[in-house]
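retry 2 of 3: previous attempt timed out while embedding DLZ. Reduced batch size to 1 and resubmitted. Inputs unchanged:
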Amino acid sequence: MASALKNLSDYDESTIPSAEDASFGIVVSEWNARITHALYEACYDTLLKHGAKEDNIHVAQVPGSFELPAGAKMLADEYKVDAVVCIGCVIKGETSHNEYINYAVANGLANLSMVYGKPFVFGVLTPDTEEQALDRAGGKHGNKGVEAAVTAIRMAHLKKSFKSGKSKIGF
Ligand code: DLZ
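retry 2 succeeded.
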C-alpha cells in the first residue's frame, strides 16, 4: 500500500531541474475522463510551473489506455520531444480486462523508452475502485499527474546532462 503512506504530490521543488529548454508530449486516455482530465491538468500545470513553454508541450487524446503506447509513438514521431507522459486510469472490474490492459501499456511504454532512448512515463492509475482513483487525482493522496510531470522533467534533464558532461548524484 505504497501510496497509503505517501502524498504523490509531495516533492522538494528546489531539487527539480528547469524544464525551460525541454519539449514534452502528453497523451491522455478518454476512459474515466473525470479522472484522466484531472491528472492531465496537474501534469500540464507542473510542466509550466517548472519552466516548460506552452509551445513546447504537445498533447494528444486516445480512446482508452490500451491505445496509449500507439498514441505516444505517433506523437513522438511527429514532434521533437524529450519526454512523453502517458495518462490513463484503468479501474478493476468484474473481469480481468484491467490486467491485460495494464500489462500491455506498461510493456508498450517500457519498450518505447528503450527503442527511442527517451522516457515514456507511465502516468496510469490502476485502482480497484473509482474512489481510490479520485484519491490519487487531486484527493487525499495528491495527484499522480504531478508525479508523472516531475519524472518527465528529471528524465529529460538526465539525458541532457550526459550531453553537457554535467551528470551527478545528489542524494
Ligand atoms: C474496454 C475498457 C475497459 C473495460 N475499461 C477501461 C478502463 O478502465 N480504462 C481505460 O483506460 N480503458 C478501458 N477500456 C478500453 C481499452 O483501454 C481500449 O480502449 C479498448 O479495449 C479498445 O482497444
